[in-house]
Amino acid sequence: MWGEQKLIWYKRILVMLVTVLFAMTLTFILIRIMPGDPVDSMAMDMVRTQGMNYEEAYRQAKAILNYDPEVPIIVQYFSYVKQLARGSLGQSMIYKTSVVDIIGGSLPWTIFLLSISTLLAFLVGIIAGMYVAWKRKTILDPILSVYSSVMSSIPNYIVGLLLILVFSVWLKKLPSSGAYDTSVEPGFNWKFFGNVFKHSLMPIGAFFLTTVGNWALAMKGNAISVLGEDYVNAAKVRGLKQRRIILSYVGRNAILPLVTNLAITFGMMFGGSPLVENVFAYPGVGYFLNQSVGRRDFMLMQGMFLTITVAVVISNFIADILNSILDPRLR
Amino acid sequence: MRDFFAVICRNRRALWGMIILGIFLLMAVVGPLVVPLDTATSYANRYKLPSWEHPLGTDYAGRDTFQQFIHGSREVITVSFVTAIFTILFAFIVGTTAGIMGGKVDAIITFITDIMLTVPSFPVMMILSLAVRITDPISFGLVLSIWSWAGLARAIRSQILSLRKRDFIEASRVLGLKVTHIIFAEILPNITSYIAINFIMIMRNAITASVGLMVLGLVPFSSTHWGMMLQMAVGASGAMYGSSAIVYLLVPIVAITLFQMGCLFFASGLDEALNPRLRTQ
Fold this sequence. Notes:
The complex is a heterodimer of chains A (331) and B (281). With 331 residues, chain A is mostly helical. Chain A has a domain at 103-330: Orthogonal Bundle (MetI-like fold), CATH 1.10.3720.10. Chain A has twelve helices and no strands. Chain A has helices at 2-33, 38-50, 54-65, 73-85, 99-134, 140-151, 156-170, 190-227, 230-237, 242-279, 285-294, 298-326. The N and C termini of chain A lie close together (10 Å). The mean pLDDT of chain A is 81. With 281 residues, chain B is an all-alpha fold. Helices cover 74% and strands 0% of the residues of chain B. Chain B contains twelve helices and no strands. In chain B, helix 2 crosses helix 3 and helix 3 (65-101) runs antiparallel to helix 4. The mean pLDDT of chain B is 79. The A-B interface holds A 15, 18-19, 22-23, 26-27, 30-31, 33-35, 149-150, 152-155, 157-158, 161-162, 164-165, 169, 267-268, 270-272, 274-275, 278-279, 289-290, 293-294, 296, 301, 304-305, 308-309, 312-313, 316 and B 111, 114-115, 118-124, 126-131, 133, 208, 211-212, 215-218, 230, 234, 240-241, 246, 249, 253, 256-258, 260-261, 264-265.
C-alpha cells in the first residue's frame, strides 16, 4: 500500500519536471521557427539606433541572444540548457538587465495580487454560498445565479477596463496604472503600503468580481447536497443548534472539496495574468511576458514563460498534496 | 431533431441562449449583406453620439460603429466556430485513439495531455501568435485551438472507457465489426450531446482568448472584429478618456458579454436538458 503511494508521488514529480522541461523546449523551438531571423532584426535595430556597422552589430546580437543561426539546433539547445542549469536566463534586450532580476522584481507583485484576490473571493464566495443554501427559496438564490452568469460572461480584463472607466476616468479616485506612484519611495512605511494598496484595489477587484460568483455557486451546490445527508438530519433530530449544524457539519464538509480547487484556480489565474496586468500596467510576470512578446525580447519571453509554467506546476502540486491530506480515502 | 427542439423549449435557460445565439447568427449571416461597410474616414464626424444616421454613433475616425458591430459579428463567429471545429477534431482523434487502443498508446497520450493541461494556454497562444502569421480565420482558429483540446480529449477518452464495458460495444466486438464502425456508429452517437455542449463552450472561450490577444495588440486581425474595436477604443484612440466616445467603447463590450451569455445559457441549458441526473435536482 505504501509503496504504491510512493510510486504515485514519484510519478507526479516526474510529470512536473517533464512539464517544466517541455515548456522550456517549446519556447526554444518556437523562437527558432519564427518567421524572420531574430539576430538579423536585432542587428538591424542596432544599426539604426546606435549607428554600428552591420557585421559588428550582427556579432553582438548573436552574443546577446546567445543564438547563432549557423550552429546546429541540437548544439544550441544543450548550450541553452547548460546556461539555465547555472541559473542564468540571459539578458533582456529591452530592459538591459538580467532576466532573473526582472523575475525577482515582478513575481512578488503577481503573487500579491492573485493570492489576495483568490482568497478574498473564496472566503466571500463560501459564506454567500452557504447562506443561500441555508435560506433557499428567497430572492437571494436567483440574484446569485444572475450575478454569476453575467460576471462569468465578461472577461476579467474587460471588468478591469470598466473599473478604470468608473474609478479613474469618471470619479478620479483611483490610480489606473502601476503598482505604486513613482513619487513614493519604496520602503517599509505606511505611506508606501497605502499607495500600493490604492493601486492594487482595481486589479484585485477585477479578479474578485469575476470569480466570487462561481465560488458561491459551487459552495451552494455542495452545501445543498451535504444538507441532504443523514448525519445532518441526525444532528437536527438530536436538537443541535442551527448555528452549530451550519458551521461544523455543513460548512466543513462542503468547504473541503473546494480547498483543492483553490490551489488549481490560483495556478490558472497565473496563466491569465498577462491580460489583467496589461490593462492596469501592473508590473507583474504577465505584464513583462506581454512586453517581451510585443517587442520580441526572446530571452525575457523564455524567462517569463518558464516562470508562469513553474508557478502553475507548483500550484497544482500543492493541490495534489491538499487533496491527499483532506480526502482520507486517498491516504 | 424535433425532440431536440422540444427539449430546448422546455428549458428556459437553453431557450434564451438559443434565441440570443440565433440573433447573432442571423446578424452574422445576413447583416453584412444588408448593411454595407463604409470605411471612409471623416474626422469632422468623430465620436458622434447615437443618432438616426448613426444608430450607435461613430468611432475615432468618424466611421459608423453600427456597421462595424454588424460586420464584426461575422468575424467573431467565424473565428470561434473554426476554433471549435479544430478543437473538437483534435480532441476527438486523440481521445478516441487513447480510449480504443488502450495500453501503452493510452499511457503515452495521457502523459502528453497531462502536460498540455498544466502548461497555461494563454501564454502559449501569445507566443504562437508570433510564430504563426495570422491572416485569416483558419490560422487564427489553429492558434486558438492548438493548446485547448487536452481537457476535452481526456473527457472523451474516459467516456469511451466507460462505454467500452457496455454490452452493445462488447456485442459489436464479438460480431467482428470494424473499429471505425464501432467508433462512428456505436460510440459517436452516445457522445454527440456531450460534444455539442463542448462546442458551444469552446466558442465561448475562443472569444475571450481572441479578444484578449487583440487587446494586447498581438494579432492585428480584421479591423471590424469586436476585439479589434475594443483594442482601438482602449489603446490606439484613447477613447476611454473622452466622454463622448463612451458608446464606441461600450459597443464591443456589450456585444462580447451578450454573446458569451448566449453561449453559457445555451450550453448549460442543453446540459440540464440532456442530462437527466441534473434534472431531478
